[in-house]
């Protein structure tokens, strides 16, 4: 589980990455840097900040599971007509809010909810992909896993302020760039 220091370090890296990226954009007179240039900048930021993003990644997976638990307690409460499941869902929701706040300490407008739904979508698509895989539908499973990773990449782009909530449509179109960024960040994470 992440502690306050981990959240502060992840936030510091995100802020530094966003500032470095925005500063470089203004230097190039609003020309978009190539993916390779941008990945080099991320590498440079990580080296300077000495940040391990694997803790934040683990926390994001935990939040996904908490969202899923909220849903399961809700459906179990409805199906069994036992109110204690709704009470437990509320407790799980409070935990999810606490940990999502560590992931998204600075948010604006709807980015809090967007982040929650991107993580929830990622988890559900992974589950659907796993079911398709177990049914031998490997190509369909791969498409579903690709969709899950795209949603997860957009979450990270929002968290690191590489894209604003209003520009998600553009981010989705450029999903492969976002996916490469997330992969590059993960490559450098040491446990």
Topology:
Layout: H1 4-27, H2 35-49, H3 54-80, H4 83-103, H5 111-134, H6 138-159, H7 168-173, H8 175-187
Helix pairs in contact: 1-2, 2-8, 3-4, 3-5, 5-6, 6-8
- Kindly report how far apart the N and C termini lie: 13 Å
Which regions are unreliable across 5 or more consecutive residues at pLDDT < 50? 1-33, 185-191
Structural class: mainly alpha
- Largest sheet entry: none
Mean pLDDT over all positions: 73
Overall 3D shape: flat
> Percent range for helical residues?
over 70%
- Element order: H for helix, E for strand: HHHHHHHH
Strand percentage: under 5%
The value of Rg in angstroms is 18 Å
The helix tally amounts to 8
Question: How many strands?
Answer: 0
State the domain count.
1
Short synopsis of the structure:
Helices cover 80% and strands 0% of the residues. The chain is an all-alpha fold.
Task: Explain what this protein looks like in three dimensions.
With 191 residues, this protein is mainly alpha-helical. It has one domain (53-187). It has helices at residues 4-27, 35-49, 54-80, 83-103, 111-134, 138-159, 168-173, 175-187.
Question: Which structural traits does this protein have?
Answer:
mainly alpha; flat; disordered N terminus; disordered C terminus
């Amino acid at each position: 589980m992440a502690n306050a220091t981990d959240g502060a370090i992840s936030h510091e890296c995100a802020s530094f990455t966003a500032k470095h990226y925005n500063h470089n954009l203004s230097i190039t007179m609003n020309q978009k840097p190539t993916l390779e240039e941008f990945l080099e900048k991320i590498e440079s930021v990580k080296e300077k900040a000495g940040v391990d993003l694997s803790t934040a990644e683990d926390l994001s997976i935990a939040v996904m599971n908490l969202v899923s638990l909220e849903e399961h307690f809700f459906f179990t409460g409805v199906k069994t007509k036992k109110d204690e499941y709704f009470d437990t869902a509320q407790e799980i929701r409070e935990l999810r809010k606490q940990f999502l706040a560590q992931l998204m300490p600075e948010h604006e407008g709807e980015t809090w909810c967007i982040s929650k739904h991107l993580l929830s979508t990622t988890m559900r698509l992974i589950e659907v992909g796993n079911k398709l895989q177990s049914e031998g539908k490997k190509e369909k499973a791969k498409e579903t896993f690709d969709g899950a990773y795209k949603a997860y990449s957009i979450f990270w782009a929002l968290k690191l302020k590489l894209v604003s909530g209003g520009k998600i449509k553009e981010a989705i179109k450029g999903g492969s760039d976002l996916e490469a960024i997330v992969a590059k960040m993960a490559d450098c994470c040491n446990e």
